Amino acid sequence: MKIFDYIYYRVFFTYKNKWKDDTPGAYATSLVTLMQSMLFIMTPYFSYELITNTKIEITKISILIGFIILFFLNLYRYQKVINFKSLSEKWDNEDKTIRKRKGIFTIVIIVLVVGGTLTLATIGGKINTGKMKPLFLN
Q: Cα–Cα 20 to 30 A to 71, which of 1, 31, 40, 103?
């Protein structure tokens, strides 16, 4: 959870201080939720389909419901359990070099998670439509 806390902190900080937005918590919570749903719901789902060549029927509404539940859990976490103030006390005084390194790492993580999930989805879609052969099992 520490990586998600740091991502939340950095996104909140950027929207609040650099872009002067009034609702930085909404953006930070949404990004954390998107990444968690991609990592913990979509990636295992697509990976299982690719490895076993088994189509799992899952509706868009069930994915949306999962996302909404995860969003509200994160909203509760970052408003009641761990808020921006406690995270800023922890990370506001980071050394500039470490902060820059962690910022680059955070962006790389976001791009890898989103890009990896979209790649798995694209490959799975091609296999399901017959445009590509299964990767492992027939």
A: 103
